Amino acid sequence: MTAQYQLHGDIAVITLNNPPVNGLGLATRQGIADGLAQANAEPAARAIVITGAGKAFSGGADIKEFGSPKAMQEPNLLSVIAAIEKSSKPVVAAIHSVVMGGGLELALGCHYRVAAPGTSVALPEVKLGLLPGAGGTQRLPRALGVEPALNMIVSGEPIKSEMLAMLPGQKLFDKMAASAETLLDEAMNYARSVADVRPMPLVRDLPCRHPQGDAYFQFARNMVKGMSKNFPAPGKCVDAVQAATKGKFEAGMTTERELFINLMWTPESKALRHIFMAERAASKIPDVPADTPLRAINSVAVIGAGTMGGGISMNFLNAGIPVVMLEMKQDALDRGVATIRKNYESQVKKGKLKQDKYDQRMSLLSTTLSYDALTNADMVIEAVFEEIGVKEAVFKELDRVMKPGAILASNTSTLNVDAIADFTKRPQDVVGLHFFSPANVMRLLEVVRGAKTAKDVMATVMVIAKKIKKTAVVSGVCDGFIGNRMIEQYGRQGGFLLDEGCTPAQVDKAIEKFGFAMGPFRMGDLAGNDIGWAIRKRRSVERADMKYSKTADLLCEKGRFGQKTGAGWYDYVAGKRDAIPNAEVVQMIQDYRKAQGITPRKISDEEIVQRLVYSLVNEAARILEDGIASRASDIDMVYLMGYGFPIYRGGPMNYADQVGLFNVVQAMKRFAQNPLDDAKFWEPAPLLARLAAEGKTFNS
Ligand code: T1G
């Protein structure tokens, strides 16, 4: 049973026991209802305590049930809370560790609440594109006050129990326990002390007003609108809490219910719930058991103190892991350390980092010019020049000096990790850790698994990734791994769109309206157009069949590499990031079309977006077929966390599922008819064609 009943003398205790976080799934709800009935029928029981086993009181409704009939099957959460409020004996919630979402709503239905200090208290539904749907928008304002409650509901952020207990006039916690260890005993004693108090207090009976009335909510609505572009839930949270101040509890509950059900079916909520599950799924490697013993990683070496090496080092310093950074020359080392120091100092200035934390992190950083200083490091990450000869020299040295069992990682973004592994006598210890620039900011980490990479190395780096707050996605070895292999096709489509009649600004604006932070041409100018130029040169030898628009090469031949040269597809004013369209570039594209005998045509925004996004989807389907990624949701995480795919669309695969794979394939068939496009590329990947034909989805 996922909710156990036990009589402790004169107190009936119901313990939620549904690991990992006591999600309030159907069985657990049934267990609570049964326990309440049993306690009410038990003459010896004078009062009732509800608590949670393990690492949470309750993490809320069971997200895995959403969209299935189980979620609303009786007893649903509203019925369970109603049964608590109707109990003939007082019900005391004994809260520890985590009380979130429906878990907090359950506690708010109890007559009393006793909390251990350090408990994370939240109504995080808004992060799933929802709002609290079991009375949280009606009871929390009554228990805490309208403003603190609205702030919690709109932000979804957790607040510690002891902080909330200090709010003047709060009725959320009737008593703070000394500790989580003494919580149950203290809650039972508290239950005894109120066993005969009548009437039993109900949060729903508390008054709920805001002194400025509707004017406050209008202000709140305006504030929320600014921060919640593309997301309907925060604004609806304001509506629901405003309903709570209209006096009639049941009417407020009806409003909450309507708003909740509407949000549940929005594409934005489906996307956010998909991302919640996808992020957790990505940390699992199908053939690596969850209990694989890990290698201890207590110190890290980083080879290269450049932009990437410095950013990578900061991730480990931030996690409290000592780093020794190696360079070939002292001035390069000094520059690297100076950059790290500057980054921290700007965080201190902005109040984002305390001085003592900054000092502590810098104290964990050491530097060296000699490989021999690396012998004690448990893991080394090289971030040197992206050239196979340089990598070979580095890995041969690492093989010579690193202690047995050390993990040897390469930050390569384009080179073959298997080839790098074979430079050493220990390929099983070699793995790719592809950080994204700026490495101390971007959350995505592609973990590139070599053919010989040991399973415990994979298990270890996935745990370390979580420790340094990265979203790690496992990729197999191929050109471009997952993200860069997909963006290659996206960039090719961008070039073809220019050939056929678009300007860079038109393409960028269309995809930015779709939700990308930056279109392909602004992004090229940011990253440096010369990077793509080098790849196309390499590709023209290795993949002669891969055709490209020549416009990007023409641009680079003019030295227009982007922001770093002050001009790329656009012009830039020193110190500013505004992309100013350049007439010469537009003329260059027009001249190129003429030279190619191309008659430009008007291309709709819809076609621009479909060709850019579906090129990602088709290449991703091939990546899945090739076994480079093990699940479609992993590919969503790569593109959401590393390439700016709009969060509210849930990633390219989730978006394709919402459009319907049949419709995606139909559009691709149209694109294949275009002689200026790449008909071969637009043949649907077999996986995509099959799923479309069977009416299925990628993320089933
Ligand atoms: N339902 C189902 N599974 C959940 C879950 C939940 N609510 N929360 C976590 N899990 C799973 C998660 O998928 C993972 O599974 C494991 O627990 C550990 O999670 C009516 C409708 C609670 C702070 O939004 O914020 O109530 O991968 O790695 O870092 O108004 O999980 O091991 O198989 O995150 O210790 C509202 C979401 C639901 C809370 C723990 N509640 N969860 O963090 O572990 S909607 C939430 C969290 C609702 C009502 C509405 C965190 C955590 P697996 P983890 P963690």
Task: Please render the helix and strand layout as text.
Elements: E1 3-8, E2 11-16, H1 26-41, E3 47-52, H2 77-86, E4 91-95, E5 98-100, H3 102-109, E6 112-115, E7 120-122, H4 136-144, H5 146-155, E8 159-160, H6 161-165, E9 175-176, H7 183-194, H8 213-227, H9 233-244, H10 249-264, H11 267-282, E10 300-303, H12 307-318, E11 323-326, H13 330-349, H14 355-363, E12 365-368, E13 379-382, H15 388-401, E14 407-410, H16 417-421, E15 430-435, E16 444-448, H17 455-467, E17 471-475, H18 483-500, H19 504-514, H20 520-527, H21 529-542, H22 551-557, E18 570-571, E19 580-581, H23 583-596, H24 605-625, H25 632-642, H26 652-659, H27 661-672, H28 686-693
Parallel strand pairs: 2-3, 3-4, 4-6, 5-7, 6-9, 10-11, 10-13, 11-12, 13-14, 14-15, 16-17
Antiparallel strand pairs: 1-2, 7-8, 15-16, 18-19
Helix pairs in contact: 1-2, 2-3, 3-4, 4-5, 4-9, 5-9, 8-9, 9-10, 11-25, 12-13, 18-24, 19-24, 21-22, 26-27, 27-28
